[in-house]
Specification:
This protein is of the alpha/beta class. Helices cover 51% and strands 14% of the residues. It folds into 3 domains: 141 residues, HAD superfamily/HAD-like (Rossmann fold); 65 residues, Putative phosphatase, domain 2 (DNA polymerase, domain 1, Orthogonal Bundle), CATH 1.10.150; 205 residues, Rossmann fold. It has 18 helices and 13 strands. The strands form 3 sheets. Strands 5-4-1-6-7-8 form a 6-stranded parallel β-sheet, sandwiched between helices. Helix 9 links the parallel strand 7 and strand 8. The radius of gyration is 26 Å and the shape is globular. 43% of the residues are buried. It binds thymidine-5'-diphosphate. The site of thymidine-5'-diphosphate (TYD) has 11 residues, from helix 14.
Length: 427
């Protein structure tokens, strides 16, 4: 039996309130209206804009038209991208494609805007057809669903599902004669969807995957690491990057080394303890590798196998740079020590926040108390930096090197663009 999934866009694949609200605020400010509160803003999701400006902000008809125009001015440029793909939606799409499903979209959002949003998030490669209102042609949901179906398919002979978060989606499916899934993570409630008569109710994206593709193997996830000298601004960049990864609908698992799971965190405490001043360099390198071995098996591999994006704050490159370079054990020796720990599990991309060792130490000294490694002196950090440079020279494809002496926003923008491009390439 041929299988087909038609999705609603807003509230099912993406959530667009951030852009909607920013544009309502923008219109209000430009036209001299007081800033609408959260309650008022929430009411704007769903109904036509001119209606909302009249009903909820007390504008007359002419002013509401003007507000809608002002809203669109911002929406068409930035607002439509102030949007988030629900976490897991990419895994859902990939799993459906892997299992041979046809994917379409039937949405009340204008055709052109929908195409731009879907392409912006790189979901277009999964979707065969997008159907939305086009100019003055405003078909109802039933027709939108029918139009999104592949040519020649019908509910009698094919397995066809409409997936949406509001009763309009369920009613549309019934009108078009296809089955429906009501999803509980969007803007509608379980009661609304069940009352409308959905064939199946799913609380989460993962439930949709399990229902449509029971027992399907998750498509492979991705492994990213982020590296840099102490004081390179890793913490800030991780915060910015996790938000972007989430916004694109990847399911993120975040971790750090040394540490990342209970056994590895215990090893971390031993390694970084300032009282362990007599720790031999080889002992230190082996402890890092031991901590990594557990982390790889307990956290990293399961995350990748489950289709997640694993983002690790430091990985084996840190050992090569710090123990191999900084402590002068040598690159090859540290790679040998780590070989059984890593056992072939390497990041598909590694972000290197590039600041030289002098700048990094100046930043760090100003920030917090220095730990045992950082107390090892300037030449240690110079050698660590040289260790990183050697790694980048050896593996230029894997490293994303970014100039980390700029503002956090500038760095974040470059990191986000490059990382998202790599993640999409790997899908
Ligand atoms: P941490 O407090 O996590 O520092 P940061 O925020 O800079 O990552 O401490 C980690 C320290 O451990 C850091 O100085 C780098 C060092 N390190 C190694 O020397 N070898 C390794 O393999 C790893 C993972 C970290």
């Amino acid at each position: 039996m041929r299988k087909c999934a038609i999705f609603d866009l807003d509230g099912t694949l993406t959530r667009s309130e951030e852009g909607i609200w920013n544009c309502v605020r923008y219109a209000a400010e430009k036209l001299g209206f007081p800033e609408p509160d959260a309650d008022t803003l929430r009411k704007f999701i769903g109904p036509p804009l001119t209606y909302s400006f009249r009903e909820y902000m007390g504008m007359d008809a002419a002013m509401a038209e003007k507000a809608t125009e002002t809203y669109r001015e911002r929406y068409n440029v930035v607002g439509l991208f102030e949007n988030r793909v629900f976490p897991g939606v990419r895994r859902l799409m990939r799993t459906l494609r892997q299992e041979g499903w046809y994917i379409g979209i039937a949405t009340g959002k204008p055709q052109r805007t929908s195409e731009r949003v879907v392409a912006h998030f790189g979901l277009d490669k999964f979707v065969e057809k997008i159907c939305g209102p086009d100019g003055d042609h405003r078909p109802d949901k039933i027709d939108l669903i029918k139009n999104a179906l592949p040519e020649g398919w019908d509910a009698e002979n094919d397995d066809i599902w409409m997936i949406g978060d509001r009763k309009f989606d369920v009613e549309g499916a019934i009108g078009a004669g296809v089955k429906s899934i009501g999803v509980g993570y969007g803007y509608g409630s379980e009661e609304e969807l069940r009352t409308a008569g959905c064939t199946q109710y799913c609380e989460t994206v993962a439930d949709v995957i399990d229902f449509l593709c029971p027992g399907a193997k998750a498509p492979e996830g991705a492994f990213l690491s982020i590296e840099g000298l102490d004081g390179s601004g890793k913490g800030t960049q991780i915060r910015l990057l996790t938000d972007v990864i989430d916004r694109f609908g990847f399911e993120l698992v975040q971790s750090r080394e040394p540490g990342g799971c209970p056994i590895s965190e215990k090893l971390r405490d031993i390694i970084l303890d300032k009282n362990n001043a007599e720790m031999d360099d080889v002992t230190e390198a082996i402890l890092y590798a031991a901590s990594r071995a557990q982390h790889v098996r307990e956290v990293i591999r399961p995350a990748i196998a489950a289709g997640k994006v694993m983002l690790c704050d430091r990985f084996v490159d840190s050992s090569v740079a710090y123990q191999g370079g900084g402590r002068q054990l040598g690159v090859q020796k540290v790679l040998d020590i780590n070989a059984p720990a890593v056992d072939g599990t390497m990041p598909m991309a590694t972000i290197y926040l590039d600041v030289d060792h002098v700048t990094s130490m100046k930043r760090r000294a100003a920030a917090t108390e220095l730990d045992r490694l950082e107390l090892a002196g300037d030449s240690f950090h110079a050698r660590t930096e040289a260790g990183y440079r050697e790694l980048i020279r050896r593996d230029p494809e894997r490293f994303i090197v970014v100039d980390a002496t700029r503002t956090p926003e500038e760095i974040g923008k470059e990191v986000a663009e490059k990382v998202i491009a790599r993640l999409m390439e790997a899908e």
